[in-house]
Specification:
The chain is α/β, with parallel strands linked by helices. Helices cover 44% and strands 11% of the residues. The protein has 16 helices and 9 strands. The strands form 3 sheets. A 5-stranded parallel beta sheet has the order 3-5-2-6-7, sandwiched between helices. Helix 5 crosses helix 9. It is globular.
Length: 323
């Protein structure tokens, strides 16, 4: 455990003493895949300490209010289940309290709220339908950067538990496969027992679904790489969308320090973003590209950099077309 993480845990406030009076308009739902940079972005949004960060509240193993949800849950926009809706409303309104969700909070009274979750991509449209005034931010990071980080942490291991089971949970949900046939077709062509192929396949499902379901105006797509390469511009866009005051001088100090789940900030940004080139063989990179093309997601990046940054494509902020 790093000194910074230990300090955070010692400083956190007992959950029962937290006063959360944030409204739906002042609640940010920050969604992304594991190791996509959601913790770092949440801390950047909360650079002035005014937000309560609700950490991973849809984890059914850590949060009792989420026990009715799958570990990775798919829900269509029009799905209506009273139990799930009641549980989600409690989470979205900040009524959930425990040391897991409040690990990052060190003050007592909050008028703004950030719900940061890495298991909600497949139900973002549903969440938007039950909380239409809540801004949603979808954070995307290059699939091979995510795969490299998962491998180092052992998240992509072959055991039938944990992150390997995520894939099984997704494929077991018939409504998901019926709504998006491309998932079932791709699953037949991907070697699920291969660690890299499985992670990239999961990455595709986790991003294809929200980009298909969400409508313009319901969300903002943000690329991790854009934030690293052009922090001033990209964070200003993000803050404008969230209607949060943008204070670059105060934000700078946050961007230069590691987050709770990231050990250190990058010294060489562009090199940091393309380290996966040294981690994988050309054959593996080709396999990953092939899986992305099955979902029509290969256009999101050009030479490892978001197409938004190269000026060749702008559609990811508002959705994609069906392949």
């Amino acid at each position: 455990m790093t000194l910074g993480l230990l300090r955070r845990r010692l400083q956190r406030v007992t959950p029962k003493f937290i006063v959360d009076i944030a409204t739906p308009e002042s609640t940010v739902f920050l969604s992304g895949m594991g190791r996509s940079g959601t913790t770092w972005v949440a801390e950047a949004i909360n650079h002035d300490g005014t937000h309560r960060i609700v950490f991973e509240p849809f984890n059914p193993h850590k949060v009792k209010e989420a026990r009715s949800f799958e570990y990775v849950q798919y829900l269509s926009r029009d799905y209506r289940d009273l139990t799930l809706m009641t549980s989600a409303q409690r989470i979205l309104s900040g009524q959930v309290r425990n040391r897991w969700v409040d690990v990052e909070n060190r003050t007592r009274v909050f008028r703004r709220r950030i719900i940061k979750d890495i298991r909600s991509n497949l139900m973002l449209a549903w969440l938007s339908s039950i909380a239409p005034r809540m801004p949603i931010v979808l954070l995307i990071r290059h699939p091979l950067s995510v795969a490299m980080s998962w491998h180092r942490l052992g998240w992509g291991a072959a055991e039938k538990t944990g992150w390997h089971r995520d894939c099984e949970v997704m494929l077991s949900q018939k409504p998901l496969i019926d709504a998006f046939p491309v998932i079932g077709k791709a699953a037949k062509r991907v070697d699920i027992e291969n660690e890299l192929q499985r992670i990239v396949f999961q990455w595709c499902v986790m991003h294809y679904v929200p980009l298909q379901q969400l409508q313009p105006g319901e969300y903002l797509t943000v690329f991790y790489e854009d934030l690293v390469l052009n922090p001033q511009r990209e964070f200003e866009i993000l803050f404008q969308y969230l209607r949060v005051p943008f204070k670059p001088n105060r934000l700078a100090s946050v961007l230069c320090k590691p987050s709770m789940t990231h050990q250190r900030a990058p010294v060489n940004p562009r090199g940091h973003l393309t380290r996966w080139r040294q981690a994988f063989t050309s054959r593996q990179i080709e396999q990953a590209s092939s899986i992305l093309s099955m979902f029509g997601l290969d256009h999101l990046y050009v030479d490892g950099i978001p197409a938004t940054a190269t000026g060749t494509h702008t559609a990811p902020r508002i959705g994609i077309s069906t392949p």
